[in-house]
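Hey,
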Amino acid sequence: MTGPGQGLLWGNRGSLLGPAGRPTRKPSTRAWFCCVLEFKGWRRVRWQPCLLTELYFLDEATALAVGHRPCGACRVPDYQRFQRSWANALGGGLPGAPEIDGRLVADQRTPEGRQRAFRAAVGDLPDGAFVRLDGEAELVRQGRWLPWSMAGYGAARAVAPGLRPDVLTPAVRVLGAGYAPVLRPSPG
């Protein structure tokens, strides 16, 4: 059972801490994946300078919103579902991790490292997509908004039908092609 603010997954962007333990400006890898918290008893010493820096996510929808994908080692069935949905959404055969990672990074970040967003009609957004509405992150679920916070989701609220919010999830078409992210239980 997870408590308030406890994430369901952790992710990787390579080393985000330099030799002196200070944050670096850019990720050291394009392989941004999200993993289960426990796998085969593996243990890591967290937040070591110049080594992989763990990031913790409330749930998979949160991880997808910032450009991560399911891990191909600890989450094989989810990774394979993601690949199939990717192929259905974007065409072609099953993509490999480097292809997915490159596209997610390009769709999620500008060359300067700023987060990209695009506008879409409310009716075109699949469950699991994140949007920015009035400066706040919101999850789309069953045609309603769930406000996001570090502690979890707030109560669901109605969506104005003509709205065109900023979409934050770069893999939104993958969600639309059937990939259902793991969500943290919420009051909504």
